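G., before I forget:
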Amino acid sequence: MSTSSQDNASAYWAENLRIIITYLSVWFVVSFVAGILFVDQLNAIPFFGFPLGFWIDQQGAIFVYVALIWMYVSSMNKLDEKYDVHE
Amino acid sequence: MSLDLLTYLFIGGSFALYIGIAIWARAGSTKEFYVAGGGVHPIANGMATAADWMSAASFISLAGLVSFIGRDGAAYLMGWTGGYVLLAMLLAPYLRKFGKFTVPDFVGDRYYSTTARVIAVICTIVISFTYVAGQMRGVGIVFSRYLHVDINTGVIVGMAIVFFYAVLGGMKGITYTQVAQYCVLILAFMVPAIFMSMQITGHFLPQVGLGATLDSGMSVLATLDKLSVDLGFAEYTAGKKSTIDIFCLTAALMAGTAGLPHVIVRFFTVPRVKDARTSAGWALIFIAILYTTVPGVAGFGRVNLIQTINGTDDANIGTEYEKMPTWFKNWENAGLLGWHDYNGDGKVQYSAGAAFDGKGGKPAFDGDARGEFGERAVTNAKVNPAPAAGAPFANEVYVDRDIMVLANPEIAQLPNWVIALVAAGAVAAALSTAAGLLLVISTAIAHDLMKTCINPNISEKQELLYARMAAVVAILIAGYFGINPPGFVAQVVALAFGLASSSVFPVIVMGIFNSRMNKEGAIAGMIVGLGSTMAYMIYFTFMGGSKDDLFLGISTGGFGFVGMILNFIVAYVVSMMTPPPPAEIQEIVENIRVPRGAGVAHAH
């Protein structure tokens, strides 16, 4: 590999890591902070007939996971184009 | 048409479909056998992954589990879906770029070590076998309940079907059969759920229905909370387990999900890295359809169950045994329900607390002997039991959690075709997962052991033959466990997740994200993670370890998370004290981080 393509690869990887960290933070906050650690506090808030904590636990988190994966897919597709490493 | 005839038609029809697909999609090469030729469309692969993933446990047991434990069931709901976020972002695209057939392939090549490969092979085989035994059992239960055949006959029929399409079709046959199985199982899960939601709340979607307000002016969940508390159970929407235990259990199930070999291998079957990511997205959509419906099914089922048994008259709780609906007696005959009339009023009454002595509160039936009211006689009835704390009277009924999904359509008095459809769906869920697991086992033996470790000179034809023979042996062993199930299926499945989260998941993540990780670190990490998790589980499950001695109160199911942390720490420390991996390995790592040039999955 030439130096420039190596730089390119490192820059691509750094951005890739940033994307992953961003989305996994959301994943962590929703599942563990909201869904487990503070679930009792959130349960005091009503949400369409559900206690909010219970809803996040049993349904909301799953919707967030689906959204996260698709946002990740689209971010990565853009990133692949930007660094010209797409297939 | 009678229920029996309908059930035969639905199950028979679905079997004919699976066999037809298997003949159409026969595998001719090892590449087709292991990874379906690497050309599966991401949507089809997403469906196949969903069917592969959603086993008898998801279809039959999950809603029952949530129904009986309430909010704590969220650990399973989040754990078994949240793992896909990890899979999509941390594993799938890079493993696809790596482009080999199996998880041991990656571990062995990345850590340039036969020892690491063999450990990975052992993990793969143990995880897959523990899992597959439960599937065969699921098929047996459905057959015995709906087709009135012996559980063993059911297991053998299931084996024969899986044999046919897994051995003939390999991954290619399995993939396209799983697409069909997904359609059958999701239909079978959604139709009764929608019916029940309409009946109870008037809402079409169970996801919305669970939040609805009933005629009484109370919401479904508030009704459930009240019913539960009145009968001495904990509030439905409140947690019972400690926060740290739920935290660890959820994390272990997530990492375990991402580390299960039969799930990972599905991402080797798509053409490009990009497709591996998309495919994970599709898989989770297909899985989420079922998983977000589960809380609704659990909640409605619970309300129906309590109100059918205890009636809706608060002053006069209970229903006379003679007047209990047929489903109650059917499941009693199947051994999954039991009743003993402690207060001698001839009525069935349900509340908190174990109804029977020992055996986890399960009834021990006295052969075919019948009691005063025609109920099955039990040998472990309690003597003058006191009501459980908070319960108004002593509980008289044992209800097995596993019957909730299967009995729901009958409890809700849905038409016979819905019941037949549910039976076909449960069989589809069990067979699709069993086939995926059997393929992983046969690949691990033929490819990772025979071809790579023992005799690299065998031809492709021979390797394919070994793979098919291994599949046959694996089916026979799985069938044996289905007929003679170990009495601890649930614990064994927990062990599978523990192993995956404490060994497979961390070792792959480090292999991708830490190019300095070397074989010494990886092997030490795997041994520590695996060893500590297994020791903990064996000590507390089989050697009578007391609950007071649990580490920070973390149950065995959650310890996989602790094992994973130990694995990461030990691997990092050991790798820092030993020489870095050779330059060509670091180059492999650089290479898998960039999508371009994945090509098709290739052999050695």
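Chain B has two domains: 3-300+415-592, 304-404. Confidence is low (pLDDT under 50) at residues 600-604 of chain B.

More on Monday.
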